[in-house]
Fold each of these.
Amino acid sequence: MTYDPDFKRIFEEIASDSHTTVLKSVEVGVLPLEIDLVLELDKDSQLQYLAPIQQIRECVEAERFIIEYKGPTDRATVNNLRKLLAYRQLFLIEHDGNEEQKTVPIVLSSTHPRKLLKTFHGKTHSEGVYSLIIDNQEIYVISINSLPVREENFGLLIFATKKEKITKLVEILFDKSMIGEENPKILHEEAVGERFLRYAVRWNYEIVAVTARQRGIKMSIVKENLKKGIEDIGIAEMIDELGLPKVIDEVGLSKVIDVVGPSKVIAEIGLPKVIEEVGLSKVAEVLTEEQRKELKELL
Amino acid sequence: MSIIKENLKKGIEDFGIAVIFEELGISRVVEEVGISKIIVAVGISRIIDEVGILKVIAEIGLSNVSTAVGLSMIIKEVGLSKVIDEVGLSKVIEEVGPTKVIAAVGLSKIIDEVGILKVIEEVGPAKVIAAVGLSKVIDEVGLPKVIEEVGPAKVIAEIGLSKVAEVLTKEQRKELKELL
């Protein structure tokens, strides 16, 4: 299972709304060196729903972040941290004028890097947000699974992998997404709920579906989010994943042909192939007397 | 596999593939996947089964049938004699040319069906020879018949004297010797 490209994809959507430039897979030095994400901030950047990053920003007056993502199957190690520091230096070499102090490295880890924090005497800034010194340089570590489930953290919590954490998040998202049914005035809450529910379906479908069933929530909400997710990825790409024959079997070939129109289907196959497949005897069998006569003349 | 795709896949299978894609719209599915991919995936025969043979003919137009499939296929299916019975050998050869007719069914088959004389009578020996070469005609129908039809000079030039000598009877050899 690969997490990195999908993390970058969703994170970019979340952060881009906060007037923040997100650079994905930034190449530095000699390939294959690649920074997961670089966040370029300006005075309007709000980092909405990314409160832990905003907190670090305020703490060190950062203008950009060099981010290394560690998914559930990829634990942060000392070497990862050193590599991240090197990435920052390479980035600074290639981008003249960027101040070192304002270019801050962050490890964004799905799981809690307990051993690492212990070894390097990690300093806790808030729940789930830490910093540590390695080779005399400061690195920030955000442990996603340790972040409190609050709206300002939604942009990171969506990548949580701890079942209890993600379940709690999904419950809140359902509550928010349905709030408009009772009180149409609270549009913001509903929009936030819907937005992050869409991400949750893509990142952790099973928990979303189970939570919806357990709480008696209309599955149509989940289904709508699923459809949006498919549209984002691309219908063709998703069908490739499922296997085209399987999809056609399920949908029914006749429905597909009805939609396309038989003439287009035949044109696509090519007439000789159609006749080859049908067999001339079958063709002859279904011809009317007049058609036979016409064919004879043509022959 | 990507985590997003894996999750969406779970969701699609959970709700049912048909349900999800019907709701997304079959026309969109076809448009995005492409009809050619669909045809490859399900196989032509299934498509034709689905469309129905009458519809296929109605769609393609009968006049296209003969031009589209080629003579060899028609002959293969219907049988040469039937085709010749229906339209006449000369008509068939006239339409498609002797080379194509012979290429389609083989000269021997034509001869089996209608006889070499009929073939030559219909199209003339020159056309038959031009189509397949004299040696092939000889192989197919036997030398005496060819000599009779084509004339000895051409035959000798084509096959060589030794072969001519080989096929002569004792009396013929004797007669030839005297003549020489």
Amino acid sequence: MDPETSITGSPTPPSLAVSGLAYSYPDSNQALFGIDLEVGHGERVALLGPNGAGKTTLVMHLNGILSGGIGEVHVAGVRVDPENRETLHEVRRRVGIVFQDPDDQLFMPSVREDVAFGPANMGLRGEALEARVGHALDLVGMRDFADRPPHHLSFGQRRRVAVATVLSMEPEIIVLDEPSSNLDPASRAELADILRTLDVTILMVTHDLLYALELCPRSVIMSQGAIVADGPTRDLLSDTALMARYRLALPYGVTLEPKPTPS
Amino acid sequence: MPSTPAVEHRHGHDVGEQLYVHRHTPIHLLPPEVKILTLVVFIFIVVATPIQAMWAFFLYAGLLMVLAAVAQLPPLVVLPRMVVEVPFLLFAALMPFTGPDPQVQVLGLELSEPGLWAAWGIIAKGTIGVLGAIILAATTPARDLLTGLKELHVPPMLVQIASFMLRYMHVVGNEMARMKVARESRGFQATGIRSWPVVAQSAGALFIRSYERGERVHLAMLSRGYTGSLPTMDTLKASRAQWLKGLGLPAIALVICLAAWAVQP
């Protein structure tokens, strides 16, 4: 799918539109220098870059946790404005962030309550809430574990439940912070299968380049607070000069050929 | 779908529920808010009883033993848990030696009479309170205790703090265990006072890590629309009959307490 046509060819606004975003932390350490990024509805995009590139800072802007710099973020056409509580609430529903450590994400005493936390904050109650929770757990294959406390789950299961906790809010876009970290190869593959089936826009922050290649047709590379490359994942990953410049490297023994362009 | 085999405990093995003893007794079935209020009122009555009426305290203890029997809690479960009381008992044991005059002769020792009474008061009231709390904890899962507190309109912030403590006890405990392994892997041995600074530094590091985790959890909560209250699901209200059943214990205790005051010289 060509993202350009999906954006301009349909009336659906892009899931995410970041324009001219710059931000300095209060200790005057500037983390973002004018970010422009558009992610179309239904796209899966990987956000790559070395540590300290500003990836997390960018993510924190997407639902208004961080703000106060210059530039704008729009989520499915709604401007993220921390001053406006109404839209902020709506933005946080639309942007589901899955944090890296599932123990940070899963703070309620049971899986069911945790998955219900978001929709309940949106005002859902009773059967509608139950149905929403059940559906989200089905999507990640964890319905049978609804009454378990999170610490009785394996790490891979906790990661999947963490995904369900944002799916239950029916978000426009899911932002995953290092989704494959600490997963054993089987859990890593299971999570990939789940993410592929989701009918939702995905922005994935990762150092796992092969995971990006597997799941995301498009990648964006950040370095020192700016976007330095944006294109098809395979093209970026097979550009060895580009990769080396931004401290990125494929695992040992893996080489990628750029995809022959179809006529 | 792979599943870890170790998760097949349905109840009684949750975090903070090592104290819970899974049975199906009338006491287990009472709603948590009834049990909590019952215990609190009962303890207030016990504390309000004059210590000179020693018989009253034996009656109270007898009542609790009946409850423990109804709840099918064997003495071998209850008695070891009473060890938590020991520091208070030690403190109480000092009082007869340090209390004011008049002194009395007991087994050839000069002991303070008010000190003896005060020690008895601490031992009797403390033991009864601890016994009651043990029965409550053994018959109510920790999570239900939180629901009970919420039902009793304990400030939501306190209930939330307690519920997070319950959730993260294991996480912090694991972190502590990892730090211990890391220390020992590098040749550290906890021997005497010289090792205290290292242990204290670890405690500080653990505190900071937990604090940072708290911040991350708060972020995760905000990201999912947290506005100050935790949603609860399906809570059943205690029925009038359940309240009456629960308040039977303090009612009997009240009679004992009044009788104790009445026969007071």
Amino acid sequence: MIAYVLQRVVQAAAVVLVVAFVSFVLFNYVGDPVNNMVGQEATIADRAALRERLGLNDALVVQFARFVGNALRADFGISYQLQRPVATLLAERLPATLELVLVSAVLALAVGIPCGVYTGLRRETWAARMILTVSLVGVSLPTFVIGILLIYLFAVILGVLPSFGRGDVVAVGWWTTGFLTASGWKALILPSVTLCLYQLTLILRLVRAEMLEVLRTDYIKFARARGLPSRVIHFGHALRNTLVPVITITGLQVGSLIAFSIITETVFQWPGMGFLFIQAVQFADIPVIAAYLVLVAFFFVAINLAVDLLYFAVDPRLRAERRVAPGGA
Amino acid sequence: MLARGLHRALDSDLYHSFTRSPLTVAAAAVTALFFGGAALAPVLAPQDPFDPATLNLMDAFAPPAWTAKGSAQYLLGTDNQGRDVLSALLYGSRISLLVGFAAVGFSIVLGVGLGVLGGYLGGWLETVAMRLADVQLTVPGILVALMVDGIVRTALPGGLKEELAVYVLIFAIGISGWPQYARVTRGATLVEKNKEYVAAARIIGIHPVAIMVRHVLPNVMGPVLVLATIGLALAIISEATLSFLGVGVPPTTPSLGTLIRIGNNFLFSGEWWITLFPSGALVLLALSVNLLGDWLRDALNPKLR
């Protein structure tokens, strides 16, 4: 058990280090950091002094160690474009992204699971077929096209929902939230629907497939033979067993939500980290790009590690096997 | 010879399963329409959207022909520069398909190459390649493409950025797709490697490279074809997404995604056709290619017959 966890942690750390190295190379060798910091008037002596002060004359390993050390203290330097510390910029944008991702995830689960159960139980009804057909459209439309269509329908034609920004936000400490104002909620609707659609479809189809599978098993037949009411069979016995794969898929899909939030944020000009990253790429704002890369790598590795360990906690068979053969892969 | 080949093709299981599925036939027709339209764009398009001399700013924002203010000259209307939307669509599909095919080709060369080499030779190459693939598969493809695109764009000096944008895009999308091909071909290679024909080839002293290229490769390419079809749809969508975000092909050579991005600025002033027609074209193209891929997967799977 400990060997397995250690192995996974070491592997995760290696991935983050590799991404950090790419960021570091980008940071230090693309363009000239000194040129990006001083004006045209700086003399050669000034530049040399700055170069020495920034430690750019040190050995590569020393510089990389310093980069990692700074990253651990959330110090990613100053944005070229906005002339402000990158860490502050990211901290300002973090609440917007996390709130969007949270609402989308909740929406995907709250709509996806009931629809999946319904289409699994009442397979032949036209409503179930409707839901499945509509969900097919959800997977085949690219995220940004969904966003554009929703904006055209609800913001341009009907004019009922805002098409950009977060609405009014309230500051709670350093966290800004849109959950406390009506306009904040209104602004959340279109982006979160756009973002959740793909995940919703995935969860719906997964729950449906699992329900169909479980309903064929002997213990469900036995429960029916015992004369249990179908409500108990469907929700107490069948649904509970479908939820293990749903939990793991949902965990893994949080990463996808982060990825697709880049697109959704750009379509709706949502002031989150993804929008910041796209702007940084367009302006070649290297410190922001480097910081975002490291952050995303860290995030993905953390999610995968958590899901891996969750398997371990959820599936007793895994534990038993490892006890028999300790130190196995 | 040719007639016999044709006869055999028309009598095959593949052809029969194709004609039995109307949806697949429709998807194939739409895909063929796009390929034809893209290939013949210079002949078919009423206007050359890249030639500023043919653009007339007086014709800007003309709505589609069937609306009250539309003119028959511009079937699907014009954009902000007086560019005919239909012509832009034809040329745009051309770039979208070009990037899509090139990206998938790059993924296949990289993925199949590493898959066969790794599966046949084993050793550290296999370990490294498969670990890399495992790690990359935990990250959504579009995010990988975005990151690689972002890094390469930033690394290029300013002047080259526009010039090489299409190649950067192909590289980024290609990189995002290779692990699937590597996994599938490695698995198949491991199976083929232990078959008698490979042992026989080895015994009579054929060079390992020749065995891999001439004997193993043809036997592992079946599933690659299915992956490539679905991969093409994905690559087209990835290209459009990156171009829409403004980090793909430059506005001077607009792809479908770039056209949607340009049109998106005019959605609020009521000029819906500039963005909705390219969006529709993109969805139709991606959906058709996807349906073809689904059909191919089922048709080539002997378990489903």
